Amino acid sequence: MTTSRSNFALAFVAGGLLLAGCSSTLPQSDKTFTGPLSAEREARMRENRFVLSDAEDKELDAIDRERLALALDLKVFGKAFDDPRPVAGFGFASQSHGSYVIYRDGSGNLFSDTGTETSFESMVKRLEGVFPAGPEAKHIIGTHPRGTMMVLDTGNPEKHIVLRPQTSTFNQVHVYDIATIADLPYVAMATEGGQLELWDMNSGDRIEVRELADVQPRRILDGSSLDRIVFGTNEGEVREWNKVGDSTTLYRHVGPVLDLQYVAARDILVSSAKDGTLIIYDRVAQAVLDEIEFETVAYRVHVSPDGTHVIAIPSLGIPYVINLETMEGLELSANSGADIVDGQFIGDGNLFIARQGADRLYIWDVRHGAAIAEIQPQLGGGLLDFAVSEETGLLMVATTENTVEYWDLKSGSYISTPIKSEKEIAGISVSDDGKRALVALNNGQMVDWQIDRDISGAYVLNDDNLSG
Asked: How remote is the C-alpha of 141 from its chain's centroid?
């Protein structure tokens, strides 16, 4: 493990965030200037921009670059690699611990707000994804379907734990699901062989295992309490595992349970299954409130933050929203039946955003089902990733043309393209407070900046300013 200082973006102001500008081939184009530029002289140069020499034009560009760099407080973290480095996951760490990136090979970096970089070598290979876990989300878990996983403590980067569920010393097992336990540094795993396992992220120890003879756990309710772990099975049952080790069947689907969500405000469970059903269950009344059948499988269920709406997204179908106060449902409008994925509620839950296919996003008002915006990348290319900053009212769209676009959340209108990159973008993330954005690049680096909807100009990230 190594610790070093990262190069901040302000260091590359002189080397060049590129901005479009006019140039000239006048005889005096090789003339150079020294010393600070006065405000009066700068104003004269801008008035005569179209007849400036190349040297004068570059001088103005340098001024613009410096001002834009300061306005965005843009920072570049990490070392650039010649070969692409596939990213398993990245984001902002909790409790002001900066940001992190974990690669598919199991290696990664933590970056503090002050620029300190902590690197760690691979302990687990071929990671498929990562997610934050534990109290204050200070742990980062790297997942693998064959069982071996890594846990990184962002508050203590020296602490790098391996979780290795297995039936014997050498035989790893398939892990169907992994979920956090509320308020504790524990995770629950559904593993093959009909097992539920509890693991301690601080020690890496398996603290409990329960083998269920008649069912195979498949989906675990994330955020279950330790004494009431709710899970769905391959046999279609939704069960509750209590503190003494007994499991009680709450209700049943016909096919395997695919998703399981909890509406805390109403103490309601919502689950979808491979048989195309969605069931809403009242835990207090111990009764099914509604069962809805779709023509195709609903792989994902989304619950609004205020607990008022539930949205199910059938495969190759139109999203369906249920009002939990009235138990009435309606379809959200869309122009085609292409797969709709990566959905999330905005704000308290009146708006819902999701991507459809490879090139567009929808924003719906779930109260009446109408699409208030249909968004496609303004400058061409496909839709790579998106993130929402509710603090600034912005939707940030990362495209396959390696740009980041700003869109207004309320009107769905395009605002600007503040970031352009000559290196491939892997994805985009926004801090919890909605004030900073982060993109991961496939060359192994990260770019972090302050979100400002009024910023003008576009930064081009290239070899000159990414040579950290």
From this structure: 14
pTM assigned to the model: 0.84
- CA nearest to 460, candidates 34, 53, 74: 74
Place of tokens 């203590």: 156
Cβ atoms 202, 216 nearer than 8 A = no
Query: What does the block give as tokens for 34?
Result: 């020294």
Tell me, letter by letter, the H, E, C secondary structure of the chain: CEEEECCCHHHHCCCCCCCCCCCCCCHHHHCCCCCCCCHHHHHHHHHCHHHCCHHHHHHHHHHHHHHHHHHHCCEEECCCCCCCCCEEEEEECCCCCCEEEEECCCCEEEECCCCEEEEECCCCCCCCEEEEECHHHCEEEEECCCCCEEEEECCCCCCEEEECCECCCCCECCEEEEEEECCCCEEEEEECCCEEEEEECCCCCEEEEEECCCCCEEEECCCEECCEEEEEECCCEEEEEECCCCEEEEEECCCCEEEEEEECCCCEEEEEECCCEEEEEECCCCEEEEEEECCCCEEEEEECCCCCEEEEEECCCCCEEEECCCCEEEECCCCCCCCEEEEEEECCCCEEEEEECCCEEEEEECCCCEEEEEECCCCCCCEEEEEEECCCCEEEEEECCCEEEEEECCCCCEEEEEEEECCCEEEEEECCCCCEEEEEECCCCEEEEECCCCCCCCEEECCCCCCC
pLDDT digits (tens, 9 = 90+) for 220-238: 999 999 999 999 999 999 9
Least confident of 4-13, 107-116, 186-195, 238-247: 4-13
First CA to last CA across the chain, in angstroms? 19
β 414-421/459-461 pair status: parallel
> 109 is written with which tokens?
């970096």
